[in-house]
Amino acid sequence: MALRRIVLDVLIPLQVSDIVLIERLSKIKGVEAVDIVIKEIERKVETTSITIEGKNFDFKKIKEVIERAGASIQNIDRISAGKRLI
After folding, report:
1. Does 86 map to a domain?
2. Is 41 helix (H, G, I), strand (E, B) or coil?
3. Assigned domain for 47 exists
4. Measured distance CA(38)–CA(28) in Å, rounded
5. Do 5 and 86 meet the contact criterion of CB atoms below 8 Å apart?
6. Residues contacting residue 71 through CB under 8 Å, at least 6 positions apart
7. What digits encode the pLDDT tens for the residues 25-62?
């Protein structure tokens, strides 16, 4: 299965730079675009929606980069696979 798009609900600690995280995610093989939308800022964390698009990227590597940054995936909101996006 070739992953093409995934949308994740992610909690990011405020001390973690969104810029650094987006740069790390965009360097993963197969990733063509990364978008972070900040939905809410609380005392210690940001609630975000991270959309990743590409061709056949590895979800395990995505998860690893997010967790190494100290963030945590709360939910997978959307996932797309196949030869094209719909």
Report:
1. no
2. strand
3. yes
4. 22
5. no
6. 10, 11, 12, 13, 16, 21
7. 999 999 999 999 999 999 999 999 999 999 989 999 99
